[in-house]
Amino acid sequence: MRSVKSKDTAPELVVRRLVFAMGVRYRLHTRTLAGSPDLVLRRRNRVVFVNGCFWHGHDCRRGSRQPKTNAPYWRAKIDNNRDRDKRNILLLEGDGWKVLTIWECETKDVSTLSMTLRRFLADEESIR
Ligand SMILES: [Zn+2]
């Protein structure tokens, strides 16, 4: 089990490819923002997090998988990640960002994911 959150994970690449195909420009891992969001669409005031189901404690099969060893250790670590994720989203929203969290398991269904992203990114057009 890897203990370090790696950049450029496969789910992240799926999301990036879709957003790029929509002709939307973004930055990656902006460290000046809470939680260094995976994609930052500054002009649209939007950020996207792509979360691994296990590490971020998603409520899906993969996310609720129990590690065979050191279960309490992992549990605490994952609970921590979840709390931090929530805090970061609140901070970002407080600063006027719209936040979308994409879960790793959602990147398996590209057409649904593509619709979700499109909807999230399109909102802006109706504001202007
Ligand atoms: Zn999941």
Say how many strands there are: 4
In N-to-C order, the SSE pattern is HEEEHEH
Low-confidence runs of at least 5 consecutive residues: none
Question: What is the count of helical runs?
Answer: 3
Tell me the radius of gyration. 15 Å
Strand order of the largest sheet: 1-2-3-4
Q: Gap between N and C termini, in Å?
A: 46 Å
Please state the average pLDDT score: 89
Bound ligands: zinc ion
Sheet of most strands = 4 strands, mixed
Beta strand %:
5-15%
* Class per helix and strand makeup: alpha+beta
* Helix share bin: 40-55%
Shape: globular
Report on the structure:
- 42% of the residues lie in helices and 13% in strands.
- It is globular, with a radius of gyration of 15 Å.
- A four-stranded mixed sheet has the order 1-2-3-4, sandwiched between helices.
- It starts with 9 loop residues before the first helix and ends with a helix.
- The protein is built from three helices and four strands; from the N terminus they run αβββαβα.
- α2 links the parallel β3 and β4.
- With 128 residues, it is an alpha+beta fold.
- The chain binds zinc ion (ZN).
- The site of zinc ion (ZN) has 8 residues, from loops.
What would the keywords be for this entry?
128 residues; alpha+beta; four-stranded mixed β-sheet; 3 helices; 42% helix; binds zinc ion
